[in-house]
């Protein structure tokens, strides 16, 4: 999982470095969920989905 997060961060960094129109407004890197949020944050995530940590497990029917 960490390798995937690292790859996403590097890809985002390449896009930002390209200087293409609109990239100057890109600030967020959304990746990770409750179970892997520490890894996501360590790899630069600025948005993490933490629903399970707040609401608990869902019952799927």
UniProtKB/TrEMBL annotation:
Keywords, sorted A to Z: Pyridoxal phosphate
GO molecular function, one term: pyridoxal phosphate binding
InterPro entries to which the protein is assigned, alphabetical: PLP-binding_barrel, PyrdxlP_homeostasis
PANTHER family according to UniProt: PROLINE SYNTHETASE CO-TRANSCRIBED BACTERIAL HOMOLOG PROTEIN, PYRIDOXAL PHOSPHATE HOMEOSTASIS PROTEIN
Protein name: Alanine racemase domain-containing protein
The organism of origin for this protein: human gut metagenome
């Amino acid at each position: 999982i960490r390798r995937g997060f690292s790859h996403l961060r590097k890809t985002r960094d390449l896009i930002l470095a390209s200087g293409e129109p609109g990239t100057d407004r890109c600030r967020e890197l959304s990746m990770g969920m409750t179970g892997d949020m520490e890894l996501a944050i360590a790899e630069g995530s600025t948005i993490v989905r933490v629903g399970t940590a707040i609401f608990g497990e869902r019952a799927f029917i």
